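G., before I forget:
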Amino acid sequence: MTTTRVPVTVLTGFLGAGKTTLLNYVLHQNHGRRIAVVENEFGEVGIDEALVVRTDEEIFEMNNGCVCCTVRGDLVRILSRLLRRPEPLDHIIIETTGVADPSPVAQTFFFDDELHDRLELDAIVTLVDVKHVLAHLDAAAAGGEKVTEQIAFADRVVLTKTDLVDGSTVEQVVRRVGELNPNVELVVAEHGRLDLDRILGVHAFDIDRVIDMEPSFLTEPVGEHYHNDGITSVSFDVPGELHPDRLSTWMDQLVNEWAVDIFRMKGILAIAGEEQRYVFQGVHMLVDTQPAAPWKIGEDRRSRLVFIGRNLDRQQLEASFSGCLVEQGADHGVEGGSAAG
Amino acid sequence: MWRAGAQRADTTELRRIVREELDLGDDDTVTITETACPKPGCPPVQTVISVFPADEEAYILRVCKAVNDVKPMDLIAALAWGDHPDRFDPRSTF
């Protein structure tokens, strides 16, 4: 199904991080892709050539009484319009403003099945200006909060202006980025140039690739990383199999109680009675779950989850998740599969 | 919202009904989401229909039923009680 979906890259980054420079570089490369750019009206510099659609941010709240899901109404309209074009597009790039919250943009791709079936959120790419980002991270008044969210949400972080600082500053930035988002892939742009294959067509949100594309996901040590403004990365590994009904209830509780604070989450689930792994990922309240590769015969069945968000309590998350485990001898009718494989 | 891929409701028919009942054009956009909430007092399942008219403000219709159970009359009721009541005034039928 992914082959027929139009990939969409969301380009974020604080003011002056080099988004427009990168966009112009992308559009002038001889890559053969038919690209549409959705640019916020307050973009700093115009984009040359290519199909450019300008938009006003329209925040649309889908409050269902318990959980509020915020999406970008302007993107819903524009993306639907782009999909109706007679000439198919190869790629769509959405450039956000420097102070934009990435959450509503990301959620726009998950809340409606039709959009989800026709568009593939390829990756959230965040540009980080290494010369200024440390000051921005340290000073909330300078927009630090949005910078931290933009980095925490990212699948790829592009380091720009590396030629303007010394090596130790770059190392410091790399460390700070890693504290916020331990699994993110870093790409260095040299004089605004980089290997486009590292940021376009990476399928970071393709649920089948959570394992394939990120082997480190399975081997990274579990734990918790705190950032000074409450941004937390939490991961845990739970051996055993999950009772499907309890898991379903837990998922509902998760999105109702924690959704506002969870930016991104992904995981591999071992569900009792299922021969396949289940892979899930989500943005705030919107969770997508799909079956993936089958368990091997005799393989130790276990679940592994990673969350990035604000003020997350690892102990509480892990304890509540562990409550979904099948209790041997007590859960009649729920077949464990680890022995049979 | 626990949405296993195999359990996801097909919204095609409901989209057709919404477009027909609300007399929407090709440039108007409809999105449909089925949500679940385990909290006491909340409807266990809810279909949230968002309408983005081409040149008008977007609005939401909520029906406390699963996607596959929503009927045209539910939309009329949702319009009467929803975010955009001037789309339909039930008093006009009396």
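Chain B has two helices and three strands. The interface with chain A takes residues 1-6, 8-9, 11, 15, 26-27, 29, 31-33, 35-39, 42, 46, 48, 50, 52, 54, 58, 60, 62 of chain B (CB under 8 Å).

More on Monday.
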